[in-house]
Design goal:
By secondary structure, this protein is mainly beta. Helix content is 11%, strand content 61%. It has an 8-stranded antiparallel barrel with strand order 1-2-3-4-5-6-7-11. The protein has a two-stranded antiparallel sheet with strand order 8-10. A hairpin with a 6-residue loop joins β4 and β5. The two termini are 30 Å apart.
Length: 228
């Protein structure tokens, strides 16, 4: 499954290069967790995302898709392998918790073909929560594993701006139009169950690491966009 996702990400930009009005981007996200979600996470989620959009009517509207990841916890703790049939045996584990974000968005540029092109946007999609748990030493009892948890629905609005880097520094477009993409979105997330382990705790089950709340965040994004 993973190799199919990688292959898609490699071939998707190539398949779009011949089309006009296509924008491909990559950037970094800082999610500010709000309310109970903030209380249940170790740090504000950090991650990256890929974006692809198509210019619509008069190049002011853009319809796009975002695929990203956010990580909010990384903990070491000790697990007694009771469920594996070896009570009294302890394994030092490291657990990473996060979510995969996939949204569609509609942007409206207030200005176009300028150095600064502010926009407003609306987003809707989902976030699927996951955990990756691995042993910190070789173990013949415990096998590293990953888990998919609940999926939260997301919806929100935001604003941002494109900065035409070519026009900013040279006064004209580069051969390949390159834009700095800066945005902030308020994303209302539905209530789901997700994990956040306790550091250096000794456990014999993974159930104690689960939390439950709404997953509302502020998403801050900065990245680059290539316009074809």
């Amino acid at each position: 499954m993973c190799w199919r996702v990688v292959l898609f990400l490699l071939l998707f930009p190539i398949s779009l290069q011949a089309q006009k009005g296509i924008n491909l981007g990559f950037g970094f996200n800082n999610f500010k967790a709000l309310s109970e979600f903030s209380d249940n996470t170790t740090r504000n989620p950090l991650g990256v995302s890929f974006l692809a959009s198509k210019d619509l009517k008069n190049k002011r509207f853009q319809l796009g898709f975002e695929l990203g990841v956010g990580l909010y916890s990384g903990k070491r703790y000790f697990y007694e392998t009771v469920a594996e049939g070896y009570p009294g045996n302890y394994v030092n584990l490291y657990e990473e918790n996060g979510f995969i974000l996939y949204d569609v968005y509609l942007r409206y540029k207030l200005l176009k073909e300028k150095t600064l092109m502010p926009f407003v946007e609306a987003k809707a999609g989902a976030s699927t929560y996951f955990s990756i748990i691995r042993s910190m030493q070789v173990s013949e009892v415990y096998e590293d594993d990953s888990y998919i948890h609940d999926t939260a629905l997301n919806a929100g609005i935001g604003l941002g701006t494109y900065v035409d880097i070519g026009k900013l520094f040279t006064g004209k477009n580069w051969v390949k139009k390159t834009l700095l993409n800066i945005s902030a979105n308020y994303l209302l997330g539905s209530q789901v169950r997700y994990r956040n382990a306790v550091a250096y705790e000794v456990v014999d089950t993974f159930e104690s690491g689960f939390r439950q709340s709404k997953t509302t965040t502020l998403q801050y994004h900065i990245g680059l966009v290539l316009a074809f």
